[in-house]
Each structure stands twice: as C-alpha cells, then as structure tokens.
Inverse folding.
C-alpha cells in the first residue's frame, strides 16, 4: 500500500485504485501498489475488467524504478497501429 503520513508502510495502508468505464461501457478497476523483495523494490500496475475471466488481468506490469525498467507480465490491451 501507500503510506499516508504514518511512519511505517504495510498491508493496512491504502492501495491506490480507480474504477471507470471504457468506451465500450465495460467496467475496469486499476490498481497500483508497491512490492519489496530480496532484490529491491518495485511498483505493480494492474487492470481487471468485467469482461475478463476470474483472476484474468487486462494488464499486469512490474516497474523497477531503480533500474528504470518495466516488464509486462500479462498484456491483453488491444494493439493500436502507429
């Protein structure tokens, strides 16, 4: 979660999220949260839509700010031609 003025971060803190409808009137929920492991910290971005199956992400992206890298673990977003 994200720290809100407290001295410790933890699982009881607020997880940033946003609910909205896309152009096709499908409900989506986007979340952003922090993760930490033995190799450092990361930021996780995820989007789940009503059209997807249970436990299926529209996208799941992991960003490691220290390395300035992002990985798409799952990306079901439609491709838009340039």
């Amino acid at each position: 979660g994200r720290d809100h003025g407290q001295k410790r971060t933890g699982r009881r803190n607020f997880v940033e999220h946003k609910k909205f409808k896309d152009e096709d009137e499908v409900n989506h929920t986007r979340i952003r949260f922090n993760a930490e492991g033995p190799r450092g910290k990361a930021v996780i971005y995820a989007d789940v839509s009503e059209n997807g199956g249970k436990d299926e992400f529209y996208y799941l992206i992991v960003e490691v700010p220290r390395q300035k890298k992002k990985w798409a673990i799952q990306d079901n977003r439609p491709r838009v031609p340039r």
Remarks:
- Residues 60 and 74 are 5 Å apart (CA to CA).
- The mean pLDDT is 80.
